[in-house]
Write a structure and sequence with these properties.
The protein is built from 5 helices and no strands. The chain has helices at 3-16, 21-27, 35-42, 50-60, 64-81. Helix 1 crosses helix 3 and helix 2 crosses helix 3. The two termini are 16 Å apart. 24% of the residues are buried.
Length: 82
């Protein structure tokens, strides 16, 4: 799965909950996730590990499966637009 699709799914979920990157970092603070890490994931600069994705999904109140499903759907949309 592309880093851009994962980042877009994370950003969409975060914004749909009215959270800033700082808010999400605060909610996931026990995992050591920083705002910069969230920025790098959302911008597609880095691909997060499964553990990191799980922690972010948990902080957003969704399952890892839902986060991955959203990313796959966004990747499919990008493929159709190309």
């Amino acid at each position: 799965m592309r880093a851009q699709a994962i980042g877009a799914a994370l950003r969409d979920l975060r914004k749909s909950r009215g959270l800033t990157q700082d808010d999400l970092a605060d909610q996931a603070s026990d995992t050591g996730i920083t705002r910069r890490t969230i920025y790098r994931i959302e911008s597609g600069q880095t691909s997060p590990s499964a553990v990191l994705l799980w922690a972010l999904a948990d902080a957003l109140g969704v399952s890892l499966e839902e986060l991955v499903h959203r990313a796959e759907a966004l990747a499919a949309e990008e493929d159709q637009d190309s």
